[in-house]
Amino acid sequence: MAAQDQTLIPPIAPTTGTVDKPVVPLPGVADWLVNFCRSYSIWPMTFGLACCAIEMMGVGMARFDMSRFGAEVFRPSPRQADLMIVAGTVSRKLAPAIVRLYEQLPAPRYVMAMGNCAISGGPFAFKDQYGIVLGVDTILPVDVYVPGCPPRPEALLEGIFQVQRKLTGRRLVAVPAGLDLNMEQDTVRNNPGNTGEKA
Question: Taking the complete model, does pTM exceed 0.70, yes or no?
């Protein structure tokens, strides 16, 4: 097939749908207990695309130690993970592979957009650019946004706390003294999986 017969940039169709409903619905207390256990056993997928990945690696080191919150097991395969942290710039050429990896995650699955490039294209968002996806939420349903260029490891930990909050409906880790987090502005996207209740 000749190169001129192929389209330069294939269209990217967004993935539709939300978290799959459970096959067997659990009663109230059992459902809460399962979600509580899930919130302290989040397994993110090893998926670093750019400079944000360095900060994501830093979160696993001793200073920040995300293993205290049950999220230390970075999995190399999407079939063993339940959180995809998109850390960095997403090119249009890479977007179909990201969608495929997302579809291989077992349910319930969550997506975190880490850094300005993953959220909105970052410094690559300008007129007539054609190679960068302007926000991973155009191709995947994003649950938590972690802004920054690159975001600090503390911001990634806060994003993990927001995923835990999405699972349990409340914040499980106390806010440090002297830190004013405006909990009215929830970074968890308001979708059918989110009850919208404030802790």
Answer: yes
